[in-house]
Amino acid sequence: MIKLVVFYEKPFCAANAKQKQILRASGCTIIERNLLEHDLDKETLRTFMGEKKVTDWFNPAAPAIKNGEISPDTLNEEAAMELLMSNPILIRRPLMVIGSEKLCGFDADKVSEVLERYVEPMPKINCMEKGCLEKRSE
């Protein structure tokens, strides 16, 4: 069975490294993406946030949040999304795609629940169609 996770991370982030280690230990195959150089548009990024409150879209450890430059609890969705798009370090990470679900942040219980729903069997490959068993001419 394949457990495929698209994992948007901040490269070299210790927390993201631990999260990937947990996923791999549970049998997941991870496709890593750099969150700081993502190619997501606003609408797609918004789908990762689901029903979360705007304040939960933000990484509380981001420097601008920690030093009080940005106060997520004062932002509406539109203003929050503008900030996240212009400064991806603010995005709570990781962003993950598992099956057809998108997640923001690493809630171990939620990740486990989603993985249980989206474990897919290994796709069957017809080797004859791929030409790997072609007849040899002698």
Describe the structure.
Helices cover 35% and strands 16% of the residues. The chain is α+β, with helices and mostly antiparallel strands and 138 residues long. It has a single domain (3-130), classed as 3-Layer(aba) Sandwich (Glutaredoxin). The protein has a four-stranded mixed beta sheet. This is Nitrogenase-associated protein. Belongs to the ArsC family.
Task: Write the SSE topology.
Elements: E1 3-9, H1 14-25, E2 28-34, H2 42-49, H3 63-66, H4 77-86, E3 95-98, E4 101-104, H5 108-117, H6 127-130
Parallel strand pairs: 1-2
Antiparallel strand pairs: 1-3, 3-4
Morphology call: globular
Give the strand line-up of the largest sheet: 2-1-3-4
Helical residue percent? 25-40%
Structural class: alpha+beta
Tally of discrete structural domains: 1
What's the CATH class, please? Answer: Alpha Beta
Total helical elements: 6
Biggest sheet, open or closed, and with what strands and sense?
4 strands, mixed
Q: Which topology does CATH recognise?
A: Glutaredoxin
By oligomeric state, this entry counts as single chain
Strand fraction: 15-25%
Poorly predicted residue ranges: 127-138
| CATH architectural label | 3-Layer(aba) Sandwich
CATH fourth-tier homologous superfamily: Glutaredoxin
- Note the run of SSEs as H and E: EHEHHHEEHH
Overall average residue pLDDT:
88
From the alpha carbons, calculate the radius of gyration and give it in angstroms. Answer: 19 Å
Q: Can you count the beta strands?
A: 4
Protein name: Nitrogenase-associated protein
InterPro entries: Arsenate_reductase-like, Nase-assoc, Thioredoxin-like_sf
Organism: Sulfuricurvum kujiense (strain ATCC BAA-921 / DSM 16994 / JCM 11577 / YK-1)
Family: Belongs to the ArsC family.
